[in-house]
Design a protein that fits this description.
Layout (H helix, E strand, L loop, with lengths): L1 H31 L7 H23 L8 H25 L5 H8 L2 H12 L6 H18 L6 H19 L5 H29 L9 H29 L1 H5 L4 H12 L7 H18 L14 H4 L7
Helix pairs in contact: 1-9, 1-11, 2-8, 2-9, 3-7, 3-8, 4-6, 4-7, 5-6, 5-7, 6-11, 6-12, 8-9, 11-12
Length: about 325
């Protein structure tokens, strides 16, 4: 009974963490509008630099020391940062030049399906029919909620690159979490992204890679740094620790739901009938998938993931 209670509590914390992370991601769409005139890559570099400093302060306050990484860990960490943060942002930036935002969102919305298939395959297991089916429902609901859109082949290819980056942000974290924990991993990933983004920004914008932000831009950058980067990263990696990457991936379908909710809260939009149907489908898919077995949950292939949670929030 004690074991069942611990597992149920673990899952409950994971659900709350995943919901919180993806709600912050979805709500950030309304905030990001304030940064349309700010250098994108330079702004991302500032955002992750501030988040890294926040993680350092939290680690010091909690007495969490830095962990020495071996060569394999460093390579995996650099790949995670290069694909899950830098590559993801660059692909989104370029994709929007060739395709509609709804198309980009629909492609990225396939993340639950990819994670439901890839996570067990990487563990040498068969994908679970129930989890894959739930992921299809979530992705379909997300597409209905935000619209399917259109675009040219280049746009779809770049959107697929953003999808790959989003998936790798979770998959590459799984083997690192037992050693680093959610807090250290978030700090290392953000810190590694800063020089990459600055270099990409210099190549793209030259000396205009950063500039003094306006008051509105400063507030938007503060939100993205404090809530979207620092808090959302911690919550997301804590969710992976407790749910597994495949089950946690279902909650990425909440992004359009949260975006619609943020628009309603700000008075900039009201959900249509199609959006309400899509939202209901997302919620139903998540509920169905939570009852499935995860290929990378703490009590599964990575049993020591339970200890990884101690370095993050929701302890």
């Amino acid at each position: 009974m004690d074991t069942i209670a611990v597992v149920n509590k673990n899952v409950a914390y994971g659900v709350l963490a995943a919901c919180g992370a993806q709600t912050l991601v979805g709500a950030s769409a309304a905030v990001s509008v304030l940064l349309v005139n700010y250098p994108v890559l330079g702004g991302q570099a500032l955002r992750y630099a501030v988040a890294t400093l926040i993680f350092l302060m939290i680690a010091r306050a909690q007495g969490i020391v830095l962990v020495k990484l071996d060569r394999r860990d460093v390579l995996r960490l650099m790949l995670l940062s290069a694909t899950g943060l830098v590559g993801f942002n660059v692909c989104i930036l370029l994709a929007l030049r060739y395709t509609q935002p709804t198309t980009l969102g629909t492609v990225i919305g396939c993340t639950p399906i990819v994670l439901a298939l890839a996570t067990p395959l990487l563990e040498g297991q068969r994908p679970g029919l129930r989890l894959v089916g739930a992921a299809v429902l979530v992705s379909l609901g997300a597409a209905i909620a935000q619209g399917f859109g259109g675009g040219d082949p280049i746009g779809f290819l770049l959107a697929a690159g953003a999808l790959a980056g989003g998936v790798l942000f979770s998959l590459l974290a799984v083997p690192l979490l037992p050693k680093l924990g959610a807090l250290r991993l978030s700090m290392y990933v953000c810190g590694a992204a800063v020089p990459m983004l600055l270099l990409a920004g210099i190549l793209a914008d030259g000396s205009g890679v950063v500039r003094m932000p306006t008051v509105q831009e400063l507030l938007a950058l503060a939100y993205l740094s404090l809530l979207l980067s620092a808090l959302a990263f911690l919550l997301w990696y804590s969710a992976i620790v407790r749910l597994g990457a495949d089950r946690a991936g279902l909650f990425t379908g909440l992004v359009p739901v949260a975006a619609a909710g943020a628009s309603m809260a700000l008075g900039t939009g009201r959900p249509s009938g199609a959006q309400l149907v899509g939202m209901a489908l997302v919620v139903f898919g998540v509920l169905v998938g939570l009852g499935a077995k995860s290929a990378s949950r703490p009590e599964g292939a990575h049993g020591d993931l339970r200890r990884a949670a101690r370095a993050g929030p929701m302890r």
